[in-house]
From TrEMBL:
The chain crosses the membrane at residues 25-42. This is Ancillary SecYEG translocon subunit/Cell division coordinator CpoB TPR domain-containing protein. It comes from Marinobacter nauticus. It is found in: Cell membrane; Membrane. Keywords: Cell membrane, Chaperone, Membrane, Transmembrane, Transmembrane helix. It comes from the Bacteria.
């Protein structure tokens, strides 16, 4: 990429990049957060199920 010479060109390049890639970036971040929180919820669910099964087995 050619070196940008002025601050205005740099700002415009960032605006253009955001216009082209902003929605994809936000969707990616949202998907990553959903995966992380979903995984944590699944792990908590499994731990709760194991604890209940162990409790039933012990009694």
């Amino acid at each position: 990429m050619a070196e940008l010479r002025t601050e205005e060109e740099q700002v415009q390049a960032i605006k253009d990049w955001w216009k082209n890639n902003g929605s994809s970036l936000l969707i990616g971040i949202g998907a990553a957060l959903a995966i992380v929180f979903g995984w944590q919820a699944w792990q908590n669910h499994q731990a709760q199920q194991r604890a209940e099964a162990a409790n039933q087995f012990a009694n």
